[in-house]
Amino acid sequence: MKTRIGILGLGGVGGYFGGLLAKAYQESDQIEIVFIARGATQQAIATSGLKIVSDEQEMIVFPTIVSDDPAVVGKLDYLICATKTYDIEESLVAIQKCITKNTVFLPLYNGVDAPERISALYPDNVVLEGCVYIVSMITAPGVIKKVGAYEKLFFGSGTAPIVKLKVLQTIFEKASIESYLVDRIDETVWEKYIFISALASATSYLNQNVGEILSTEESRKLYVGLLNEITLIAAVKGLELPNDIIMQTILKLEKTPRNATSSMHRDVLAGRKFELASLTEFVVEQGIKYEVETPNYQIILKKLSPALDALN
After folding, report:
1. For residues 194 and 234, is the Cβ–Cβ distance under 8 A?
2. Cα distance between residue 165 and residue 49, in whole Å
3. Which part of the chain is the Ketopantoate reductase N-terminal domain (predicted)?
4. Is the pLDDT confidence value at 52 over 80?
5. Is-above-0.85 flag for pTM?
6. Residue-wise over 22-41: b if at least 16 C-beta within 10 A, else e?
7. Is 217's pLDDT higher than 90?
């Protein structure tokens, strides 16, 4: 019997890593990759395949199945979740007929509360934790552009059976995905969250890319202020992060392509719904809960909230 892996969300993350999986297992009689997509994305992939464009090459891959119909998608052994965080509940409820008691979830969202939200919907299932570092985006339906060479996927669980984790790790390795099975995954996820939350908030508020933030004194000062606020919250929560986490995060930003920006900033510029709740408001709420002041995050939330409200 084949191991069936669903990819929910064919954006920069799901599209890229799902594409690598689909390419690796296109002829496999043991692994089946299923893309869960709708609308223009579904039509484009069904007709022309999923196109991935990187700095060095282009490739086109075809999954075994691309559909949003649960009857076509079928039962899933693993589900890699990579939609926007504001779509978590709606997207997962829509495919509940594909979920069995043995389905293992791997969330690869920008926020940190996804495992808790998924477990609220499917309390009997194994829900892993995970995060990725990559600069990638949709440039057209069924087309993913990856910028730069940096790409890493981290995942793990404090409670999941080790056999489930090892199977998934082997699947990733055979697809040439640089993945790491991490013991203290909650801290790894928070390290990524610190990076992406501060970056998303700063780029969207300032309307600047990475290079502009690094080279502008006031912008860099704001970015560092955001890092100070969110890392203090992490410390108060009891997470054991590196003592130099702020410097490590700045160094990660300096390794990011100068013309890159956050997915939230791209959504703001395009007039689309954006992940303010998960990437900015969540930090403000955590600050209130743990009595940590977050003046920079609050300023950004106050400025960006009206734009998001207008889209709802």
Report:
1. yes
2. 29
3. 5-157
4. yes
5. yes
6. bbbbeeeeebbbbbbbeeeb
7. yes
